[in-house]
Amino acid sequence: MGDRKQARDAEFQSFLVGRWPRLMRTAFLLTGEQHAAEDLVQTTLEQVYVAWRRVASTDDPDTYVRRVMINAHARRHRRRLKEFLAPRTDSDLVPEVPDSGDRIAQADDRGALLTALSQLPPRQREAVVLRYWEDLSESQAAEAMGCSVGSVKSNAAKGLAKLRAIPGLAETVTQGGWK
């Protein structure tokens, strides 16, 4: 029995190492803060580890993990609504170690975009991040968010409209791939 547990632990560790950068990017975009993103990923992975046997047997463990992360973020937001809505400074929004493949990190106005993202309501931010950052289809984003495809479309459209309304960010939103 110990051998099976070690094999399961090794499989989980391999999954974790391969997915860590992407999970951190998604969590950072959802939370807007490096430390909150780290906490969100850790909470997510704790829950996934407990259910790893079931998660590993699914067709797409990434979808399961993404859903756990969205749910954990939503729970955290509901508990800390007041703290979550507090204004943030630009220095809170810049991750400590930018990802070299991160398209937003390569943009001149990354700080402005991250500030704008942090000001979106949580569901709009989730929809925008999942659709345009994670490049999920509307149905995949709806599954991850636990809502209908129409809700994803509505939240993404409202979120993008708010981003486009910010002076100086409109060019980034349209030209930078955020349709």
Describe the structure.
It is a single chain. It contains twelve helices and no strands. The N and C termini lie far apart (51 Å). Helix 9 packs across helix 11 (149-164). The protein is an all-alpha fold and 179 residues long. It has helices at 2-31, 34-50, 52-56, 61-79, 81-84, 90-93, 103-106, 110-119, 122-133, 138-145, 149-164, 170-175. Mean pLDDT is 79; it is low at 81-86, 93-99 and 102-106.
What is the count of DSSP helices, taking H or I runs of 4+ residues?
12
Helix content: over 70%
Q: Got a strand count?
A: 0
Mean pLDDT: 79
Give the termini separation.
51 Å
Report the uncertain regions: 81-86, 93-99, 102-106
Q: Give a quick account of the main beta sheet: strands, pairing sense, barrel closure.
A: none
Q: Kindly name the structural category.
A: mainly alpha
Assembly context of the chains: single chain
Roughly how many Å is the radius of gyration? Answer: 17 Å
Report the order of strands and helices. Answer: HHHHHHHHHHHH
Mass-distribution shape: elongated
Percent of residues in beta strands: under 5%
